[in-house]
Amino acid sequence: MNETFEHALNIMRYLANQAACGHAYNQHEYWSKRSFKTVKEEKDFNADFWNKVFKLDDEERFQLGFRRWDENSKGLLIPLWIVECLPDDFDIKVTGIMGGECSIKNIDKDVRFGCVAYMV
């Protein structure tokens, strides 16, 4: 199994477990903010790591929550959880579902299928 994929999958599991703790303790804001901050500030999950995640094969990206906008889409919608984990120095060109291109730093958080309305 690809090491980058394994790390990304572990991050996704960690965030899911932290969300469950937030629910169990009725402290959603505390657990969510803390867990995303922890991932975002982890030096091993830097811009290079996330560039590798975006280049994983389609099957691995599907397992991480990437989705197709429709059957004709060439790109994959980006999971919101990944967007929230990206370090401040990360940048990549993305394409909106309406076709316009921009930096991932300039996207809104309009969500479709658990993903932002932008593709890579």
Provide a descriptive summary of the structure in words.
With 120 residues, the chain is α+β, with helices and mostly antiparallel strands. The protein is 47% helix and 14% strand. Helix 1 runs antiparallel to helix 2 (28-41). The longest helix has 22 residues, at 3-24. The protein starts with a helix and ends with a strand.
Number of extended strands: 5
What is the molecular shape?
A: globular
What is the count of DSSP helices, taking H or I runs of 4+ residues?
Answer: 5
Query: What class, by secondary structure content?
Result: alpha+beta
**Rounded mean pLDDT score:** 93
What count of domains describes the coordinates?
Answer: 1
Q: Short description, anyone?
A:
The chain is 47% helix and 14% strand.
What's the topology here?
Layout lengths: L2 H22 L3 H14 L5 H8 L3 H6 L13 E3 H6 L7 E4 L4 E3 L7 E2 L2 E5 L1
Antiparallel strand pairs: 1-5, 2-3, 2-5, 4-5
Helix pairs in contact: 1-2
Question: Which features does this protein show?
Answer:
single chain; 120 residues; alpha+beta; five-stranded antiparallel sheet; 5 strands; 14% strand; globular
